Structure formats: C-alpha cells, structure tokens
Amino acid sequence: QVQLVESGGDVVQPGGSLRLSCVTSGFSFDYYSIGWFRQAPGKEREGVSCINLGSSTYYLDSVEGRFTISRDSAKKPVYLHMDSLRPEDPAVYYCGTSLYSDCAAPVRSDYRFRGPGTQLTVSL
Q1: Residues 6+ apart with CB under 8 A from 44
Q2: Whole-number Å distance between alpha carbons of 44 and 88
C-alpha cells in the first residue's frame, strides 16, 4: 500500500526557515519521482518542487533559490527545506508520487498518491 506522510509544518516568522519531511512506504522509493505541492485557502493548487530518481530537481519560480528538495535513499524521506519564507508561502504542503519518473517544468501539482498534508503558517 503506497503511503506518504508529511511532517514539520509550523508557524514561522517572515524570513525564517523550516524543513518539511515526507516519509514514504509501500513502493520502491529509489525508482520514482516525489514532488511537493501546496494549497492555500481560496487559491489554486501549486506544484512547488519535484525530485527525480537521478536527483534532478525542479522548482516553482517563486521558490527557486529559497527552497531545496532532497531525498535520502537510505532513510527514504524526501525533504523540502524552505528559507526566506514569505507571506505568500503559507499553505498546506503535500508530498506526492504517481509512481513514474516524471518531474518536469512546470512542476506538477497533481499526483496519483499524496499524503494528508502539513500546515505552514508565516506570521510575526
């Protein structure tokens, strides 16, 4: 059974940093792309970042240079490290996979499987 579970969401001040984690199970982690997407109330879902099995990465333009996606093949989580957080970044962040190696630009926001999400709030 494919499962993804996000964690790490928190309340952060503008300009702050946070790392989200996505723990996966039920599939061969090393063979497939994993992506992060987000959804804020009243806004459309946005693909944020994606990492392929060869560790090539893709980012939403507005997070390029601020967010870093990485994967740990030994421990199987995928991380999204976020720096210089802005007022437009708050959302529920989800990780997902469609069991393909399919990262590309623009980063997709729909996946066959996704986790329940973790909330990022940016506030003073």
Answers
A1: 109
A2: 13
Long-range Cβ contact pairs of 52-56 (< 8 A, separation 24 or more):
52/101, 52/102, 52/103, 53/101, 54/101, 56/103
The answer to whether 69 touches 47, Cβ cutoff 8 Å, is: no
Q: How far apart are CA 119 and CA 124, in angstroms?
A: 16
What is residue 40's predicted lDDT score, i.e. its pLDDT? 97
Q: How confident is the model at residue 74 (pLDDT cuts 50, 70, 90)?
A: low
Cis peptide bond upstream of 87, omega within 30 = no
Cβ partners under 8 Å of residue 27, min gap 6: 2, 97, 99
